[in-house]
């Protein structure tokens, strides 16, 4: 049996990965070693019965890491940046599987999303690629939703408007949003009980409070409650006026699909108050005029997780929302219709769990493939 090391298994993405692996009994197929960057020597998690007495190993110990067949890290780019070159320089030729972005565009790395790029992954494995990295969450979720159209080479370009969940900024950001909700409620709860107070007065109190320094904004820098934040991540160095989150859309999509002719993708990325599902509104220019039924069939038959939601109000509100998709592997896509600007233009809205298909699931699947 192969020996697989896990670093960053306790964080938010790491925990989702661990849960999925337990659900699917993945741990029965290899020997797991758990690492810690700060608590080596403490008790490791019990993932299967035989692992009762394991202890955490030191995630900085190159000699120990060298003994692994496969290393899976959800620790983030800082860890990868430090350890990866040193481990490779030590002569280690094992498989490195990573959720962090640092190595994504590295020429020796393949970005994994096997329902979409199985052939690219298989070619990589056959050619001796040893580094596999999960994609940016919005990119992976968009590709899972539109795989059927990409697969048939039907897409000329896409413009994406995102509605990204707090979880994309990490566990602390979800807490911050919840604290903000509580702070705002506490500010006006007395007023809400008094039917003589007009709603505009309550709104005024909330807005004034939200503009003070009292509201918690360590992560987002501005209140997310009662607000939307139209910028995610740093500004792109290469393209002024574009955020790095927006820049990744075209770059990663084309790398994942290994396209020979660039598929044009542009986006405007926005943070909203949902907890762990990213939503995306898409404007798609097709290469030819297809009927809507054909488009829906191509989309839905592409993979087991994408579900076309009928373009009706009650069904969209029931099945095409962050709330309805959260915690599931379902990739919902709906609001599909021909746009009135031309027959080759379609609109769509898609929702996916940013921690599952957006992060953990492609990682557990490549691990299983490499065992
Ligand atoms: N960068 C994404 C976000 C998360 O901020 O929502 C993961 O790719």
Task: Tag the structure with descriptive keywords.
371 residues; alpha/beta; Rossmann fold; Dihydrodipicolinate Reductase, domain 2; 3 domains; seven-stranded parallel sheet; six-stranded mixed sheet; 12 helices; 13 strands; 20% strand; binds L-homoserine
Structural write-up:
38% of the residues lie in helices and 20% in strands. With 371 residues, the protein is of the alpha/beta class. The protein folds into 3 domains: 145 residues, NAD(P)-binding Rossmann-like Domain (Rossmann fold, 3-Layer(aba) Sandwich); 155 residues, Dihydrodipicolinate Reductase, domain 2 (2-Layer Sandwich), CATH 3.30.360.10; 41 residues, no CATH class. The strands form 2 sheets. Strands 3-2-1-4-5-7-6 form a 7-stranded parallel sheet. The protein has a 6-stranded mixed sheet with strand order 9-8-10-13-12-11. It is globular, with a radius of gyration of 22 Å. The site of L-homoserine has 7 residues, from loops.
Report a brief summary of the structure.
The protein is an alpha/beta fold and 371 residues long.
Q: How does the SSE layout of this entry go?
A:
Layout (H helix, E strand, L loop, with lengths): L2 E5 L4 H12 L7 E6 L20 E2 L3 H4 L4 E4 L3 H13 L5 E4 L10 E4 L1 H13 L4 E4 L2 H15 L3 E9 L7 H23 L5 H12 L33 H14 L6 E5 L8 E10 L5 H9 L5 E3 L4 H7 L2 H4 L5 E8 L6 E9 L2 H15 L1
The structure holds L-homoserine.
The site of L-homoserine has 7 residues, from loops.
Catalytic activity: L-aspartate 4-semialdehyde + phosphate + NADP(+) = 4-phospho-L-aspartate + NADPH + H(+)
Organism: Blochmanniella vafra (strain BVAF)
InterPro entries: Asp-semialdehyde_DH_CS, Asp_ADH_gamma-type, NAD(P)-bd_dom_sf, Semialdehyde_DH_NAD-bd, Semialdhyde_DH_dimer_dom
């Amino acid at each position: 049996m192969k020996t697989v090391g896990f670093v960053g298994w306790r964080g938010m993405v790491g925990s989702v990965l661990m849960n999925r692996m337990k659900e699917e009994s993945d741990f029965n197929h290899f020997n797991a070693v758990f690492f810690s960057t700060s608590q080596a020597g403490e008790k490791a998690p019990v993932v299967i019965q035989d692992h009762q007495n394991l202890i955490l190993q030191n995630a900085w110990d190159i000699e120990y890491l060298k003994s692994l067949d496969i290393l899976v890290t959800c620790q983030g780019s800082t860890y990868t940046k430090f350890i990866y070159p040193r481990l490779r320089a030590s002569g280690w030729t094992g498989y490195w599987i990573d959720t962090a972005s640092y190595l994504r565009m590295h020429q020796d790395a393949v970005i994994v999303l096997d329902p979409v790029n199985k052939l690219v992954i298989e070619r990589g494995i056959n050619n001796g690629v040893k580094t596999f990295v999960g994609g940016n969450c919005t990119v992976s979720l968009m590709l899972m939703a539109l795989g059927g159209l990409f697969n048939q080479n039907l897409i000329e370009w896409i413009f994406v408007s995102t509605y990204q969940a707090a979880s994309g900024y990490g566990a602390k950001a979800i807490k911050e949003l919840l604290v903000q909700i509580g702070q705002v409620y506490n500010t006006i709860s007395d007023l809400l009980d008094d039917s003589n107070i007009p709603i505009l007065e309550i709104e005024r109190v909330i807005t004034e409070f939200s503009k003070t320094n009292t509201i918690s904004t360590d992560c987002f820098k501005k209140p997310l409650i009662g607000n939307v934040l139209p910028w995610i991540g740093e500004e792109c160095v290469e393209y002024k006026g574009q955020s790095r989150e927006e820049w990744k859309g075209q770059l990663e999509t084309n790398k994942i699909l290994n396209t020979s002719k660039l598929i044009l993708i542009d986006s405007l990325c926005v943070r909203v108050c949902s907890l762990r599902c990213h939503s995306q509104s898409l404007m798609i220019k097709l290469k030819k005029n297809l009927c809507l039924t054909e488009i829906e069939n191509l989309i839905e038959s592409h993979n087991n997780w994408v579900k076309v939601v009928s373009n009706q109000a009650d069904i969209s509100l029931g099945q095409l929302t962050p709330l309805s998709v959260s915690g599931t592997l379902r990739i919902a896509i709906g609001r599909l219709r021909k746009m009135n600007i031309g027959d080759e233009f379609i609109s769509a809205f898609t929702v996916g769990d940013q921690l599952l298909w957006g992060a953990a699931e492609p990682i557990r699947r490549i691990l299983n493939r490499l065992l």
